[in-house]
Amino acid sequence: MSELNAATRGTQKKRALSLDLARGFMLLLIVLSHVPLFLYMIEPGVLTKVAGSTTLDHFLNFLMEIIVDNRARPLFAVLFGYGLVMIYRKQQERKGDKEAKRIIKRRCWYLILFGAVLAGVAGGQDILMTYGIAGLLLVSTLKKDNTKIKKYVIISILICAIYIPFLWGGVLFENQSYGLLESVTGQETYFNTVLDRLISIPIIPLFTHVFFPVIPSVLIGIWLGNLNILIKPQPHLKLLKQLTIAGLSISLLGAIPLVLINDFWFPSFFIAGVVYGIHVITGFAAGIGYAALFGLLGVWIKKQGFIVKSIAALGKRSLTFFVIHEVSIVILLSPIAFNLGAVLTVTTSVLIGILIWVVTLFTAYFMEHHQMSGPLEKYMRYLIYRHPTSNNAST
Question: Rounded to two decimals, what is the model's pTM?
């Protein structure tokens, strides 16, 4: 995530507003998508959702499936891919192609390490390992022109469109249920789950890449980065509008069948899985749609008030606050600590997720006001470049 902080000072303000707003918003989506995973005392709903018991619960589940689920991850992937291009371009100019790739690979390895610690030690939901692996796999594409990148995007999406619906169809057919089996029992303690968490470290990113692929979205981010479309959006306003409308429209259309299941539509388990696979695939469009929308907002927002400054400040420190969010969710909701997941409803869990994000929003604003870097961003830069970094949070 801190990859996106690698722009030159000359483009910093314009870049930070669009990219950092997108990253700050992304953190809210991630929190909201991870909180329901700990509601283990409620009957399973459809896939990752638990069953709602009130009208408000059902409405919030509806919004989550439309806006959040399988939409936060592709946005993260697009921004990650865009950041890789920024780093590569800057380091290539300074040190050449070979060194630029070496720096990116080192960054990706450290992301994998950070993710392993988060999942194995803290018990949080990891996405850092997944994106670190994606970066290692795609670093060679950073030299390619956009014609080839677009071909890679199309090919990767077609591959996912062929196997993902049938894969999820098979999962639900095997489960004979619309929901997934609950992995939390309520008997967990920190120490009796350590071994399971450590064993799961290599499995988590493999599972994510197969069942929730991010490669197409990272490639889309590389394509956008080659266009420089979010740092210098003015020449691309028409394209940004088209991507916003098309991306979010496809995302909405891909989500509608899923929200109908188990309330208005009761298909076979296999068909329900196919529908969820379509939900996953159309999430790629949501990622590019959200990213393009924030590119437009970077142009349209002329005056930065408290809210805009706070979200941007959060986005600048997205690695730090992603980890804080995940640890907070584990401490508050999981059985190893306060165990609120046993008593929360869909509605109250969403409120908890928003509260976590709002608290860190104020914290990020305070850090920005006092020119404090995110500690994990600062440590990541130290590890990669092996020298102390400035305390300026925007570098």
Answer: 0.91
